[in-house]
Write a structure and sequence with these properties.
The complex is a heterodimer of chains A (117) and B (188). Chain A contains six helices and no strands. With 117 residues, chain A is mainly α. In chain A, helix 2 packs antiparallel against helix 4 and helix 2 runs parallel beside helix 5. The longest helix of chain A has 26 residues. Chain B contains six helices and two strands. A two-stranded antiparallel ribbon of chain B has the order 1-2. In chain B, helix 2 runs antiparallel to helix 5 and helix 5 packs antiparallel against helix 6. The longest helix of chain B is centred in the N-terminal third of the chain and has 33 residues. The radius of gyration of chain B is 20 Å and the shape is elongated. The chains are: A mainly alpha (117), B mainly alpha (188).
């Protein structure tokens, strides 16, 4: 009887590790990578914005582009983690979106493609 | 045998942080692909799991050190503008490369690509490390997560490869040199 009572107090491990945290990390990495590519083009092509990206003069606009992309990535990660950490989400769609963003970032950082804008 | 302070920093950035990162990539890819496969044989031991976690944390640190040293220490020397009246282009790598059609591509394609694409490396590998830290051996029961981590790690390897290749080419055509001269040893 005592053993049964003790066992009853220990909750069964019915809550397996959800995929939400992993999905949040993957999608936010895709977002951060994409923003890096996008901001690098904006800083290069929009003369009026170029100087806004100069956070550290010796490095020039690259300092602002990378800092803003990293901050946006970490913010997106924190927000998605808070929303998804206890849930199972559709990882197929989220991975596809993350890969698309990552692929776009690779294209946008490639100078011959960046020159098209 | 001597090396300048700027040359030493370039060496630490490229061969230290960047080169070590590239070498480490193959190990991480093999571990993630082989040991964490859903069809992997035998359980993943806690020792192996701890090893991969530490390995990915070190890789993330290397990636961050590489991009931060490159962006905030080496790049300002590379893009420095010579004072008015200076005619020695050799001390200003970007100017030197752009001064000739035969070398300008190393800047317009090489450096322009390298300075941005390199940043995909720390983003990707930090994500991979965080997922492995969180899930550990449970990645075997999350094959899609494992596949995504593998893909991002491959991209981090490619991005680091591009950065290292162009870094080596840029050093070959217009080395970043200057600052205090460090005497290493006497020759014969």
């Amino acid at each position: 009887m005592t053993i049964e009572k003790r066992e009853a107090k220990i909750p069964a491990n019915t809550d397996p590790l959800t995929n939400g945290s992993g999905a949040a990390a993957i999608l936010s990495a895709g977002i951060g990578a994409f923003l890096l590519g996008l901001l690098s083009i904006v800083a290069d092509k929009v003369a009026s914005l170029k100087y806004l990206f100069v956070f550290y003069q010796p490095t020039g606009p690259l300092s602002g582009v990378t800092t803003m992309a990293i901050v946006a990535w970490l913010l997106a990660w924190a927000i998605l983690e808070m929303r998804w950490r206890k849930r199972n989400v559709n990882l197929t769609r989220i991975s596809a979106a993350a890969f698309l963003l990552l692929g776009l970032s690779l294209l946008l950082t490639f100078p011959p493609i960046a020159e098209l804008f | 045998m001597e090396i300048t302070a700027q040359g030493l920093w370039t060496l630490i950035h490229g061969m230290g942080f960047g080169g070590l990162y590239l070498l480490a990539c193959s190990g991480a890819l093999v571990e993630l692909y082989h040991r964490y496969s859903p069809t992997g044989e035998g359980p993943v031991s806690s020792r192996d799991e701890s090893f991969l976690r530490a390995y990915l944390i070190v890789m993330s640190a290397l990636a961050w050190l590489a991009v931060l040293s490159g962006t905030y220490i080496i790049y300002p020397w590379y893009r420095a503008v010579p004072p008015a009246g200076t005619s020695i282009a050799a001390a200003f790598p970007q100017l030197l490369l752009k001064s000739s059609p035969s070398t300008s591509g190393w800047h317009s394609l090489g450096m322009e690509w390298k300075e941005h694409v390199a940043w995909l490396t720390p983003i990707s590998i930090t994500m991979a490390a965080a997922v492995v830290l969180k899930y550990g051996h449970n990645l075997r029961s999350h094959p899609q997560l494992r596949a995504a981590v593998l893909c991002f790690t491959v991209v981090s390897f490619l991005a680091a490869g591009v950065a290292c290749f162009f870094g080596a080419m840029l050093v070959m055509h217009a080395p970043v040199e200057g600052g205090r001269v460090i005497h290493l040893m006497d020759g014969n």
